[in-house]
Protein 1
Amino acid sequence: MTTAPDVAARLQAALGERVDTSDAARHAARADKSGHAASGLPIAVVHARSVEDVQATLRIATETRTPVVTRGAGTGLAGGANAGAGEIALSVRGMDRILEVRPDDLLAVVEPGILNADLNAALAEHGLWWAPDPASRAISTVGGNIATGAGGLLCAKYGVVRDAVLGVDLVLADGRLLQLGHRTVKGVTGLDLTSLVIGSEGTLGVVVGATLKLRRVVPGVVCTVAATFPDVRAAAAASAAVTASGVQPSIMELMDAASLRAVHDLLSLDAPSPGAAQLTIQTDGPAADVEADAIAATLRAVGGTVAVTHDRAEGERLLAIRRSMHPAMERLGTTLIEDVSVPRSALPAMFDEIARVEREHGIVIPTVAHAGDGNLHPNFIFEGEVGEDGTVEVPPAIWDAADDLFRSALRLGGTLTGEHGIGILKRRWLADELGDDQWELQRRITQVFDPLGILNPGKVFSA
Amino acid sequence: MTTAPDVAARLQAALGERVDTSDAARHAARADKSGHAASGLPIAVVHARSVEDVQATLRIATETRTPVVTRGAGTGLAGGANAGAGEIALSVRGMDRILEVRPDDLLAVVEPGILNADLNAALAEHGLWWAPDPASRAISTVGGNIATGAGGLLCAKYGVVRDAVLGVDLVLADGRLLQLGHRTVKGVTGLDLTSLVIGSEGTLGVVVGATLKLRRVVPGVVCTVAATFPDVRAAAAASAAVTASGVQPSIMELMDAASLRAVHDLLSLDAPSPGAAQLTIQTDGPAADVEADAIAATLRAVGGTVAVTHDRAEGERLLAIRRSMHPAMERLGTTLIEDVSVPRSALPAMFDEIARVEREHGIVIPTVAHAGDGNLHPNFIFEGEVGEDGTVEVPPAIWDAADDLFRSALRLGGTLTGEHGIGILKRRWLADELGDDQWELQRRITQVFDPLGILNPGKVFSA
């Protein structure tokens, strides 16, 4: 049996100053933006700067049977990258180079630690764009976006991470490096392991590089439509009417009454009408103005009070209300941010279910939704006991309410998680969605990649 | 040891008239459109009409350790669905119902045996469209499109099969039914087994249903641009110039001189200039006319002789030249249709390689390309000895030339197969592209789904 000090010593012998055993670094690696923290402190944090650093770490992990938790910027919302006692935290945040940009092939090759926003700032100089835009894009890494299969606001029109990655370089648990995928638009040679790795949350290997599929920056103006409705069900039905009209917005965000009120408080705006919910919609591309006017007409026809602007700055001001959701929630208490997704037609029914859960469990669940794709973020508010390290435990009563809400989403044909992942916080519901047979099959696939079970154990597949 | 007659008897006892042991049916199941045929005759052809039929077949196959080869319409070009001695041919062609169309959720649920074109005819009544458009769409099934991860002409703008499937129902080798994927736009619960099944060529299970992601029929006109160039390299460079200009055509097809000449012969058109190659480009959507004019200007600037039409019928007449490629080739001799794909910027270099292979091997390789996405179909022409059943063996010298061409594509950052699959005809090159480690990992993943190795053995992964 290798002890933790032995493992730390072997890492230091191989990787020198890349290995950080300070309390501060180990404490930071325990938690992510979910507020959840792992038990105990990891053995060390390895700050990898190269593929070889990652390979060396994994060889030592394999030899000593030590679990490895890969981390990017630690912005996850499901505890998937939290490292605890007996584990190595492997940070790839420092591997943040852009290795290649090919405007002619509309691709870029990057290291995993680059921030999404930093990548897009660099691509903009070429008139290019990597479309995935999680709300965290200013602070989250491309590798983390890949590990979780991240989404964002623009997905209904421009796709999710899975639509925007051609290949990944993956270091296996034993340190071998595989190059998965291709640099071509089409490619069907063998099994699609690239898609398998996307969203696998660190259970199959360590992504040390990615070939990304780019788009050109969309030309033309961006128009914004803001519409209020007497209640959230009417707003949800209105978003369905927009989808049904055949016009494709780039963004279509819904805020329920509690969210809207909290943001208005935060921003010192006039209070919205009691019960009022809001849709904020953007259109882009060559027909943006025509499409915005068509959407406005659709929304008015279903009872909305509608404002349209063809001015980009004014549009950003309207969208800022939506973007202020998280700080507004933080003022209400401690939050568990959930992430169910339902077929778009089920959005009104899902809001009915949220109202039912609020009533039956006696709690408040302000909810925003990416209404264009049926992805909801219910925020469960509670009085959390903040631990000495700033982390919180979600009370059992809140999990009971979340359980009720998850089951409603599944009944409506939906899914537990649209874009945040399973991590540690949702693993107990995974088999409810997959079924026991598929759960077992998926677990066995992880064992093909990781026969010793050292890659992020206890996450996703553990009960 | 269970004998073939035993297996046939057990199938007949369970499935009655669904089991066809006639020579005609068994002969037909040996071959596909590649011209390749399996050795010997399969035990029987099971014409499944339901999920239960498929499950019953696979339970008997598992109990008797009998290989199963799943077939749709038999239009494959890699021998992937050819069934031979000792095997059960399981046809799902008769499972061709559309179970659900949801315009509000932009999805349809279908059985695997429906023809792509039949599905799209039915969807058109709802103003909807399943985008994958392999050239075989009038005769190939949705299940076959999924099994091969099919592409087509519209992929650069509208994506491939992998971009257009939300979920699949899969019967495993032991007869269990799994529901993979979801009905939502976003969903990251567990591993993405739907993507893993797409393109897996019958090695992981039998697809018995699919939830398809639909688009609305694109409004507006379709414009067509036809341009000739003095040689194929100039045409390839011109296609790259179009991609670089940022205008996204819906279709961009390239025909080299030999292809163009053969089609002009077939259609009794005036002979093209010696050496001349052609680009045929279509634009669609609200800005189709503006985009067509911009593309025409780009092509003229790089030396093209350009014709533009905003008339749909005239455009179809121009595109008919491209669509006549296969019958034109059939008049030249027997053909091995290949399917390499390279990064778009490498298209001119790949045509140089094809010319080199023609010279060095003393053969003619008329080539068409989906130039918008870098996918080439070189047609190796040879004098084939047609067997008694109409199938042909590709001569070793032709395979040597193909080998040379495959290696060129890989050197240019390309892939063995853009859209046809590995099947039986390309399995010996698979490890060259994947590397031995990835080849072995992929093979082990198939064993998780199919521990007895009865699903399409000898295809894709066998050496």
Protein 2
Amino acid sequence: MHATPLLERLIQAFRCLPGVGPKTAQRMAFFLLQREREKGKHLAEILNHAMVNIRHCLQCRTFSETELCKLCASPNRDPSLLCIIENPTDLIAVEQMGTYRGRYFVLLGHLSPLDGIGPEDIGIKELNILINANPIKEIILATNPTVEGEATAHYLSEFIKPYNIKVTRIAHGVPLGGELEYIDSGTIARSFAGRETVD
Amino acid sequence: MHATPLLERLIQAFRCLPGVGPKTAQRMAFFLLQREREKGKHLAEILNHAMVNIRHCLQCRTFSETELCKLCASPNRDPSLLCIIENPTDLIAVEQMGTYRGRYFVLLGHLSPLDGIGPEDIGIKELNILINANPIKEIILATNPTVEGEATAHYLSEFIKPYNIKVTRIAHGVPLGGELEYIDSGTIARSFAGRETVD
């Protein structure tokens, strides 16, 4: 590399982005310097602003610039229905479905004892407060169908048991458009176990 | 999208990076917010600093924080040999070869009359000054083997003619490791036209 020291630091800094290796980082740095300095400055400004000012909703823990996020503050969302998800991106995925009208609780991860991630880290205290403060009738566990996600769902269902709230888990099976031939046997086993009567 | 306004602006801002579409931009924003805030702030700081402070070398026009870049300021580079390239990234590519000991001149583009890019834009004035101020014996035209690159090389060779300096063009042909079967006929034609006697 015969870049200037600052340019080398910029290329190195771009590597904090997911999926960005040395070649891509170099391309990004040169591209902005050569053609899009104003947009580069704009990105720097927004990025700093976002890193400093985007916090978590005090109730559901998703990203928010205000104490309560838009969804928690909205009077149009059903407070008797709560969906528990791992990450803010999962919230966006569920919202894109367009039919869920309840509220959310974001764990910001999943239980992972080996990495030292316990109940406190997934916000069990905040979940407790939320459950006590709202007339919740059903909690949908929508953690990912991974080993950690399943373990977290199991832990949460045990945790919620004393409240006498209906706890459900999202269905697992063959995704729409999927072909059996290419789907792992674990998923097929789940789709058989969860089979429904055809009317 | 149910992101906060600032988060949406951040996702939008990431799209100024080359090869970053809406999905990747979203992934970058959430990744930094969730796991790498400090690195995100660091990137913002370096990015702004770089956009503001990285200018061009007054002599060769590559990126530089100082008036003269490291290569132009170095007493170890042969001032009688000049390599003309299109972009600062080309300079890095040539330097990686490790055997070139001359100096460079960066056009920062190529002639493109349709886009209004003329001789002034590729630094013909600066090139003139550089040629007059240095004991140059050979100029290597290393613009890309594209239509515009070839046209630019042709223009430059005409421009340099009055100076009685030897002008050379990098060889074009089948790249090392390339297979004839997969190489375009234009390149094969160049490799035939430029064939050399085997000793």
